[in-house]
Amino acid sequence: MYAHKRLIKRLSPDHQKIEAIIRQLENVTAGFNGECRVDQMVQEVLFNKHFYYFPNFECQLSPTRIAQIDSVLLTQSYILLIEIKNMRGTLHFQEQPYQLIQELDGQSIAYHCPQMQLLRASDTFERWLKNMKFQQLPIYKTIIMPNNRTVIKTAPTTVPLIMSKEIALFIQKINELPVVISEAQLEALIHSINVNNKSYKHRPLCEKYNIPIEQIKKGIICHCGTSGIRISERTWHCPKCQAVIPNAIKQTLYDWFSICAEEITITECIDFLSCNSRTLISRVLNNNNYIAIGKTRSRRFKLNNEETFYQ
Predict the structure, then answer these.
(1) I want to staple 37 with a disulfide (CB 3.0 to 4.6 A). Which of 65, 146, 246, 304 is the partner?
(2) What's the pLDDT at 119?
(3) Which residues in 1-22 are b (16+ Cβ under 10 Å) and which e?
(4) Is-contact 54 72, C-beta < 8 A?
(5) Which pLDDT score, from 0 to 100, does residue 281 have?
(6) For the chain, where do the domains classified as CATH 1.10.10 start and end?
(7) pLDDT digits (tens, 9 = 90+) for 169-185
(8) What is the mean pLDDT of residues 36-62?
(9) Confidence label for 164 from pLDDT (cuts 50, 70 and 90)
(10) Rama region for 292: left / alpha / beta (φ>0; ψ in -120 to 50; rest)
């Protein structure tokens, strides 16, 4: 979401791909809001046993087979895999072939079927658990629609589909299942998942949308989209907002890493920041937020911890 918002600020308003990027941002934002709504509803569940809840779960069975699951709930009795679709309009879950058809504003749009996505993810996750030598817990699956105004014209037949208000009762019902593994076995499973759960790897958006880096606006850009004016070594002022741009250098560098490329040289940094102080740039890059790669002449830098840039 952050990367798409910043890309829009750094592209010309009439760029040929700007509409596609705005649509993708809307889809990502809707998906995120839907997942947050489901997370809140899960908190209403009355659990009578230990449980663990993993949002944004990802496991890798092989170099070419990865399961991405919106949320995973684990207890001593079962595993629940949750796929969340925050969509508007009228939906048809079509089978043979599997497709999700959305009717919205007089148009029909086809998507990959969430039912098939969840069935494939469940198969991958089950095989992954067996490879980890864990006793098999029964795996349940559900598709959740957080938007209560969505009309389901044709429901899926294999995976149950529920609305957000049904979540608590749905989970409380399967909470009645008998215990299969001990608390110690569950803790061991959770530890193994924490060790092996793949973290999300961001792909620079120029690569994703095939946009030349030369088309990205350079310099310090305020959140309003206005180019900042430098008033001291580390401070930039927005002529439109009439305010100091917070974390100007840090934000601009994250724009580079999230939009342009995974690595940067000092020369590229000077050019992108539109800052001629090589001493300042060297001092900024040679801190704990970045990892230096290579020798002095060809040294490149990459993010050390991407999470620090989301704060």
Answers:
(1) 146
(2) 94
(3) eebbebbeebbeeebeeeeebe
(4) yes
(5) 85
(6) 211-309
(7) 999 999 999 999 989 98
(8) 86
(9) confident
(10) beta
**Using CA atoms, how far apart are residues 116 and 103, in angstroms rounded to an integer?**
20
pTM: 0.81
* Residue 146 · residue 152 · CB < 8 Å: no
Q: In Å, how far from its chain's centre is CA 201?
A: 9
Alpha carbon separation from 236 to 3, 74, 246, 270, 284 (Å, rounded):
21, 48, 8, 15, 16
Q: Is the pLDDT of residue 191 over 50?
A: yes
- State the burial class of residue 231 (Cβ atoms within 10 Å of its Cβ: 0-12, 13-18, 19+): exposed
How far is the C-alpha of 114 from the C-alpha of 196, rounded, in Å? 24
* Overall CATH class of domain 211-309: mainly alpha
Contact 302, 291 (CB under 8 A): yes
Q: What's the pLDDT tens digit per position in 208-232? A: 999 999 999 999 999 888 999 988 8
